[in-house]
Each structure stands twice: as C-alpha cells, then as structure tokens.
Amino acid sequence: MSVIEAKNLTFRYAEDSEPVLKDVSLTVEQGEFIAILGHNGSGKSTLAKHLNGICIPDEGSITVCGLDVKNNDDLTEIHRKVGMVFQNPDNQIIASVVEEEVAFALENLGVEHDEMHRRVKEALEAVDMSAFATHATYKLSGGQKQRIAIAGVIAMRPDVLVLDEPTAMLDPKGRAEVMEVLHKFHREGMTIVLITHFMDEAAQADRIAVMNNGEILLDGTPHYVFQNAGLLWSVGLNVPQSTELMFLLRKEGYKVPLAVLTEAECVAVLNDLLAGNIGREDA
Amino acid sequence: MIRDITLGQYFPGTSVLHNMDPRAKILLMIVYVVTLFVAETVAAYAFLIVTTLLIIAASRISLKFYLRGLKPLLFIMIFTAVLNMLYSQGEPIFEFWVFSISWDGIFRALFMVIRIMLMVLSMSVLTYTTSPLLLTGGLERLLSPLTYLKVPVHDFAMMMNIALRFIPTLLEETEKIMNAQKARGADFESGSLIRRAKAMIPILIPLFVSAFRRAEELAVAMECRCYESDAKNRTRYVEYRFALRDYLAAACCIAALAAVILLNNLVLLGSVGL
Amino acid sequence: MKNVILKAEHLTQIYGEGTPFQRTAVNDISFELYENEFVGVIGHTGSGKSTLIQMLNGLMKPTSGTVSFRGEDIWAKKYNRRLLRANVGLVFQYPEYQLFEETVEKDIAFGPRNMDLSEDEIHARVKEAMELTGLNDSFRSKSPFDLSGGQKRRVAIAGILAMRPRVLILDEPTAGLDPKGCNEILANIRAYREEEGATVVLVSHSMEDIAANAQRIMVLEGGHLKMLDDTRAVFARGDELTAMGLNVPQITRVFLSLAKRGHADLGSVLSPEEAITALNRLTGGAK
C-alpha cells in the first residue's frame, strides 16, 4: 500500500522564477525507508515540504494516506500523519523543558491528560531520552536535541516520518544516535523519508531517490544507485570509498563487481582479487 | 560575562518550591513583595532577611546563583542608596555643600538596598524554581479571565515562552559572533563611546539576521506540530491543582505578613522607626 | 629545515574554576607547529578542540601554560594580540553567521581594515582573497545575504584570508555543506597554503578529508593530546581510534582488515588511489 503518492509535482517559490521542482513523481510504500539524496539546491527540501502540506504544488497532485494536501480542511490531520523533523535542532525546539517539548503537539491536538502523559513517556523511551525528561532543552547535545525533536513528532503517532537533513549539523556521534533511532522505528514498521546529502546515510536506506535540478535522476536500491558513480559525481555527490575503489579497479581492467558499498563487501572482493579469483582484461 | 545573567533562568529540581503550583507561587510572591514594603523596623527587616534565606534554602539551589543574579543590579542599588542618603531629613551628623547626612538617611538607604535585594531574591526564587513554561502557564491561567475582554492571553503567553526559550540560545550566539569578529580584528573595548557603539554593528546585524531566520523556521516547525493560535480544544501537559503544600505556603506567607506588622509596632531595643 | 611558527607549552584551560561546574577543557597540552605544514585535528565534541584553537590566536587566555608565535609569548606585556589575530587567522564553525556588510567586498575588507592598512593594500587583499576562494568579480557588489550557503561560507573564509594569516586555523569549515561544496572549500584552503606558504590547522570530523589533506594529525580526547604524529602513523592505529569512538577512512579500515587476514604486505592505505597502487604492486603492476 502506498502512503504517499506524488504525481507530476511542479513548484515555484515566485511566479516568474525557475521551478524548484519539475514534474516530480514519487510513491512511498507503507513501511519503506527511503532516502532522498541531492546536493544543496537540488530541490530535495522543497520536495520534503510538499509531503506534509507545508508547500502546496503549483501543478500536479499529492495525496498522503489518502488525503489531498490541496484540501485545506485536512491540513492539520496531514501534519499529524506526516511528522516532520528539520535540520537545525535549535530552531525547532519550542519548549524549555524536554517533556513539555515532547507534549507540544499533543497539547495542540487536544489529547487527554492521562493519554498525553502516557504518550510522552513512550516517545521519550523510544528515543532513549527518558532520563532527560525534566532537563532543560538548550543544554542538550545536538544529537540529543534531534532525538527530542523526533520524540515530539513520534508522540503524534504519525504514519510517516519525514526528516529534512536531520544530521547535517551534528557531529559523528550525534549522527549515529539519530540514525540508530531511525533504524529502530523502521524495524517497528514506520515509514521513513530521510532527506540527506550524506551518501553513507543514504546507503543505509531500502531505497534511494537522487535529486538534481528539481528532478529525480535515479531511483532504486542503494546498490543500484551507487553503481552509477559517474553520474553521481557529475551532479556533485559522492559515493562510498569502497564503491570508488571498485570503479578505479575496473579502469585498471579488473573484472570486479561495481555494486559494493560496505567495508565488509569491499574486503570480500579484495580477498578474492588477491587470491587470483578475479580476472583482468589484458592491455 | 553575559553568562553571568541568571535572572529569569530556570534551575530544574525537585524541591518543595519546584513542585508548588505556579499560580500559588506567583500570587504568594506578590504578597511577599507587599510584605517587604510593609516592613519598617530593624526587627521586621531582620525577620524578612531570615525568612528570605529560609525560602532560598527550601529551593535547594545554591545561594551563589542568587547572589550572582544581584550583580547586574549593583549599580541601581548603590545609586538608590546614595540618593536616599543625601536627600534625607533628620539630625545631620555630617554636612557638606547642600547635602546633609543623618542617621535617619543612612538607615533609610540601608533599608532601601535591603528591600531591593530581598525583592530581587524573592523574584529569583520564583523564576529559578519555575520552568518558563509553567511560569507563563501560571500567568496565562491567572490572567485567563481577561480572554473575555478579547485580550489574546494565550498568544502573549506563547510569545513569552518562546522568548524565554531563546534567551540562552541568543546569548550563546552573541558570544560566538563577538569572538568571530574579534578574530577579524574587531575591537570592542577601546575608543570613544561613539566608536564603541559603531563597533557593535558587526554583532547586531548578524544577530538580527539569525533571529529572523530562527523565527521563520520555528513558525514552520510549530505548524508541523499542529499549532493553531486560535485552537479551541487545546489541552495541557501540566495540569494545575492546589495541593496541601500550596495551602501551607499561603499560610506561611500570611503569617509572615502578620509577623511583620506585629514587629513594626513593637518597639524593640535599638530599633529605629521611619 | 623545519621552522617552528607556533608553539604551545603546557596549555591548560579550566572553566568555572572554584564552582561546582568546574571543568578542565584542555589539560596540559604541548606541541609545535611548523611553517607551511598541514595539521589535522580530530576528536569528539567536548574533547577540547574549540577551546584549544581559541587559545592559539589569543581569543582566550589559558589558565596556565604559554603560547608563543615566532618565539614571542603572546600574553607578554605589550604584545599586540590584535595583530596576532591577523597572523593566526581563525575561521569559526558556520562562519557565514558573522557576515554583516552590505556587499561581499566590504565584508571581506572588514579584517584588513581593522589592521589599519592603506586603501590600496585593502583593495589588493580583497581581490586576492576573492580569487583564492573562487568568487569572481560579479560577487563584489552583491549582498552576502543573497548568496547560497556554500558561497556565503566562501565569503566568510575570504574575510579571514584577506588578513593573510601565517597560520590558518579552521574549525569544521565544511560542516553542513554538500560534497561539492566541501571539495571547493578544501581546494581553496590548499590553494592558500601553497600560494602563501602558510601553516594550516584543520579541525574536522571527516576522516576522509583529514586523510586526503593533513601531513600530521593531532588527536584530542577529554582535553588531553592523545596522539600527534604523521597521518599514516595515526591512522595505522585504527583500533585505538575506534576505541575512542573516532573513525578511520573506510578505505583505510578495509586495508587494516585485509592486513589482519594475512595481507600485511599491502601496507597502510589512505585513499582509493593509494589502494590501487598497493593492489597493483601485489598483482603484477599497473596495466
């Protein structure tokens, strides 16, 4: 079942300007973990804002869990069903205390007192921040702040979690914390849309859509997408070093597979190569 | 430096004062400040100094933080004291030019300073032990009858909350920008007043630009979390209910007021009435 | 011949001394930086990196220990620390947040102007800094606030380069940029080092960037200097770095684990290009 169905989206920030999205179509299935990869200005953040009705497309249509974003009456319900987490942790935390921050959306939705407390507790447990319930939000580390922001969204019991470069401002530890939380929710069946320009994060998703210039350039599994290293380089993106090595080896004539992403996969191929199991084209 | 400003800051904790109903705390603080203004004698002041120290002890927050909160007010206190000392009636003990200093004036100045200090300290107790969200929540509920007069009480409360939430963030940012400009050779410490004022431009402009960007992003984040300023069915995470401790605190506060009135009227050894 | 340009001796920085929040951010660190070298600094958030670099240009006074620039103690009486900040240029994290002037040109000129240089000299330096950071003439009169994130970052870095620092310290200059933006900034930094013969200190979380650029690496943990050695030697201690929660470039990790499987003759590898050379050596040379 598809949760998000975007068809032929076109969007401009000003009427006479170049469109930021050009005829973009994207379907996200229930329980999928999709990464949207692209350089700054490729349109990936704008696409994210369409997924929960913050931006309304100039042309094309988009439905979320069967609701049309163009229908104003459904907007609050769409905001609830599609939880959004943004890049800058400092600019999305509204409350000064952790538990009150997580409760913010529930207060707005009019959730009853007991139910609200139960959900806040659950959400904090889910992101492993229960110990910080009564702490001041501004004193947390970047990774902790983002986990709180995620908890604040999860408490709404959304169907989809959309994250717009949630790790761009974090250190490696914070990035790992956030990714771990995302994997956990994904295992529990949550649909996740991760906007990022880190190729190592995108490689952890089930599927990657690569954006360039307001269009979807590639769409498929990480192994499929990273095989197109030349194309990715040409649009200002990177591939994992292991993948890069395979490309360089191919140039040298070694008949190595291109779909290599992880350290373990790379070690296995090189072991084979050193054992003489991989042929080489002669010059 | 900027980090020394503690007034309005909240120190999370679990003391009795932390757990009190914010509405009770706000009302009782008002009563306490009134009590401060009722006091007239040495005995009454001594009593209030003791009670204030007891209240501070009950907050389980180090006295050091309270005293640090007084620092920015030092100038105002000295100014008030000097003014009171110079313009006072009574038997002069020292005279020069148009001024005369009397015991009366010295006591008046002393009382004034103590009064300001106690007032700031008791307000600090309120802000140190009450999270900004609770504080504005308490104010909002105390002022909620005004909603019927079409005063947008909730909007004001939300604005207050956000302002309080961003104070530490913006202070930190100010320090960062200052350091960044110093690294480019900016000089904030020397030169004439006009020169120094001009030197602030490289700090203020980036600060404003970033505050606007933050406001814009925050507004979107709030919308994404289903915030509508005119929502009718909003519920609250923190529900307030007066508990036994709130009634006890109220009783203590009224007892203190009574004690001060009593001490005002008792002529004790060494006391000087105003 | 290695000439020392900046020297730190027993640097210690304690925050909130005497309060319950007392914290030793930097603990007894000593090292020497040489002219024209490229040093990478790695460590977790809170390892003392930011504190350390702010002590190197005199923005922060160490609780104890000394910093000397070209043999002179920067906290000696009458030492001109404003001039030092031009000589030891510091680019903070997200430097684009310090931009404030109406035009790119004026903003870049802010640093040189504070050095009381002549108008001609300021003009020449702004021009050079813009060229080094790949900002062509059309940017001159643009408002810095109308630029893209990567361009703003380059304007901010140009503002430091225009002071022609002999030591250029950068705190995560590529944070938040996409791969293309990162590569441009790193290329700008390399170009400055080559043209001016300056020393570069790069603080970064990206081990790939450090491996590709730094000659030596400083590893900080909990305020202590844990390692200071040639890049290859530091990354050869991959297990120790991992134990500190720090990373090693993916390709280096691959070759470290190949070495453990009996291919120690491959040697250590810092980049995919080096990997090819090492592999070719074992399998019978380049094509």
Secondary structure: helix percent of chain B:
55-70%
Order of helices and strands of chain B: HHHHHEEHHHHHH
CATH superfamily heading of the largest domain in chain C:
P-loop containing nucleotide triphosphate hydrolases
* Secondary-structure element string of chain C: EEEHEEHEHHHEHEHEEHHHH
Structural class of chain C: alpha/beta
Number of domains of chain C: 2
Query: How many DSSP-defined strands of chain C?
Result: 10
Task: Give the overall form of chain B.
Answer: flat
Please write out the topology.
The complex is a heterotrimer of chains A (283), B (274) and C (287).
Chain A: E1 2-11, E2 21-29, E3 33-38, H1 44-51, E4 59-64, E5 67-68, H2 75-81, E6 82-85, H3 98-109, H4 113-126, H5 142-154, E7 160-164, H6 172-187, E8 191-196, H7 199-202, E9 207-212, E10 215-220, H8 222-226, H9 229-234, H10 241-251, H11 263-274
Parallel strand pairs in A: 3-8, 3-9, 6-7, 7-8
Antiparallel strand pairs in A: 1-2, 1-4, 4-5, 9-10
Chain B: H1 16-19, H2 22-38, H3 42-59, H4 63-70, H5 74-86, E1 92-96, E2 99-102, H6 103-129, H7 132-143, H8 153-183, H9 193-199, H10 201-224, H11 244-265
Antiparallel strand pairs in B: 1-2
Helix pairs in contact in B: 2-6, 2-7, 2-11, 3-6, 3-11, 4-6, 5-6, 7-8, 8-10
Chain C: E1 4-15, E2 23-34, E3 38-42, H1 49-56, E4 64-69, E5 72-73, H2 81-87, E6 88-91, H3 104-114, H4 119-132, H5 149-161, E7 167-171, H6 179-196, E8 199-203, H7 207-213, E9 216-221, E10 224-230, H8 231-236, H9 238-243, H10 250-260, H11 272-283
Parallel strand pairs in C: 3-8, 3-9, 6-7, 7-8
Antiparallel strand pairs in C: 1-2, 1-4, 4-5, 9-10
Helix pairs in contact in C: 3-4, 3-5, 4-5, 5-6
Question: What does the model show?
Answer:
The complex is a heterotrimer of chains A (283), B (274) and C (287). In chain A, 38% of the residues lie in helices and 21% in strands. In chain A, the strands form 2 sheets. In chain A, strands 6-7-8-3-9-10 form a 6-stranded mixed beta sheet, sandwiched between helices. Chain A has a 4-stranded antiparallel beta sheet with strand order 2-1-4-5, covered by helices on one side. The mean pLDDT of chain A is 92. Chain A has 2 domains: 2-89 and 158-238, Rossmann fold (3-Layer(aba) Sandwich); 240-278, no CATH class. Chain A has 11 helices and 10 strands. Chain B is mainly α and 274 residues long. Chain B contains 11 helices and 2 strands, in the order H-H-H-H-H-E-E-H-H-H-H-H-H. Chain B has a two-stranded antiparallel sheet with strand order 1-2. By secondary structure, chain C is of the alpha/beta class. Chain C has 2 domains: 37-61 and 80-237, Rossmann fold; 249-287, no CATH class. Helix content of chain C is 39%, strand content 22%. Chain C is built from 11 helices and 10 strands. In chain C, the strands form 2 sheets. A 6-stranded mixed beta sheet of chain C has the order 6-7-8-3-9-10, sandwiched between helices. A 4-stranded antiparallel beta sheet of chain C has the order 2-1-4-5, with helices on one face. The longest helix of chain C is centred in the middle third of the chain and has 18 residues, at 179-196. Chain C is globular, with a radius of gyration of 20 Å. The model of chain C has no long low-confidence stretch (mean pLDDT 92). The interface between A and B is large, with 41 and 32 residues.
